[in-house]
Amino acid sequence: HPVLIGVKLHRGDSHPLSYSGEGYSFGIDFPGRYLVDRSRKDLLAFQSEIAARGGTFYLAKDQLLGAQDFRKAYPGAADFLRVKRKYDPWNLFQSNLFRRLLQNELPRVP
Hints:
By secondary structure, the chain is α+β, with helices and mostly antiparallel strands. It is built from 4 helices and 2 strands. Helices cover 35% and strands 13% of the residues.
């Protein structure tokens, strides 16, 4: 069961990977052991529903979002990748989050 649920009011911004649109967001924190039982499947289905309805995610805290739902939630990610290719053509700067969600979107460098 969740240990913390928070609701916040946001103003939108124009960053292509921002989760902060006009309106409200809610955060649900679950203990780590929650993700190892059958509830993980339910959380993934919930994320897919949010992405399908145009919702976004706080990527710095997310551990489950898959690349397909990421593409639905962040259609502006292509803009981010264009900037990344320009300033990091060798793909030197990356994180586990980047590898999980965006790695396959970049062309391979010879």
